[in-house]
Amino acid sequence: MIKETHKFQRKELQLKSLLEITQAINENQSEAVLLNIFKFTCLVHLNIKALILYVAKQGAFENKISHGVKGNVPKLISADQVVDEKATGELRLELEEQYSFAELETYLPVYHKDKMLAILFLKRKDLSLDLDLNFTQALTNILVVALENKRFARKQLEQEILNREIAIASQVQQMLFPAELPIDKELKAKVTYLPHSMVGGDYYDLIRKSKDEVYFCIADVSGKGISAALLMSNFQAALRTLLRSDADLEMVVKQLNYTLFENTNGERFITFFLGYFNFKTRKLTYVNAGHNPPLLYRDEAEKAENLDAGTTILGAFDELPFLEIGMREKLTDFSLHLYTDGLTEAMNPSGEEFGEERLEKFIYKNGGLDPDDFHRKFLKKINTFSKDVPLRDDLTLLSLKFQ
């Protein structure tokens, strides 16, 4: 009779324990609250004197609960140190000598779909009484799965917030680009912009300062994502402010470099090409700051020319170590093709890059085409080359045809 009464009392305590933990889960209590309820339940309602709970976290097991243990136990156990002998049903911990679990009686591994989510180490309060390991393991499983679900929900929420931030950054970045490119008798422009992700690191612009003057540029900021987009937006604002003034190309580039270095302490940089053309004097001046050299196409030339005069990348030094202003005069009926390295680094299934040589040959054969036709033909060319191999970087191609 006494034995039956004890059995009934134990079942009653187990039911109470189960109700307490499930109620806390249903109320969406915090992780700290759930862990405290579990510890209290084990110590008060179950025959447990000491316990340690390790929960899986990014390739390791983290100590979440430690009570009644006098010895030195680690805060974190690497997953590589946990050897699960499934053949014998034993668990072996390969720990450093200073750590020991000898004072604890037993352990209970907690699995979910063959994945070990936790390890519970126990010591009984009354050695004359049995410990219901099946119930204790089931209760631990409920707790650990609840913690896993909370972690997953938190991660999902963080991802949703990040996705919203990226979408906003992408919209902001699109606003940096010209709403329309000129298509008239003097100048026709066309761009192909293929971002590697929602927020790219490429930037291009075209600013018609007056009837006779036009500025055009292309840039590539180091890094990706929101930070790259923010850096590029600041860069664009500074550039447009400078171009509205009477500053020459040398002053514009030096000031952009100074501003970028001051804002990033030399930890981020931008490759940049800025060109200026005067329709009246037919003179082109430009600065190439470490960017892929744009290609100048003229019908009478034997090949496309690289526009590489300029300086080094912007933002790497507080003062530019050298600076050369490039110049071409008496230009009539010519085309310029500006691009970022995502174009030349596009790969085919064999791991071969598209490369500068292929681009130069393509431009030499087709550089005089109308920009729309040129881009249509180029996209066909690079798609045939890459055969659906994903881009490794943003791809931008800006073509300008001057007449």
UniProtKB/TrEMBL annotation:
<protein>
    <submittedName>
        <fullName>Sigma-B regulation protein RsbU (Phosphoserine phosphatase)</fullName>
    </submittedName>
</protein>
<keyword id="KW-0378">Hydrolase</keyword>
<dbReference type="InterPro" id="IPR036457">
    <property type="entry name" value="PPM-type-like_dom_sf"/>
</dbReference>
<dbReference type="InterPro" id="IPR001932">
    <property type="entry name" value="PPM-type_phosphatase-like_dom"/>
</dbReference>
<feature type="domain" description="PPM-type phosphatase">
    <location>
        <begin position="184"/>
        <end position="402"/>
    </location>
</feature>
<dbReference type="InterPro" id="IPR052016">
    <property type="entry name" value="Bact_Sigma-Reg"/>
</dbReference>
<dbReference type="Pfam" id="PF07228">
    <property type="entry name" value="SpoIIE"/>
</dbReference>
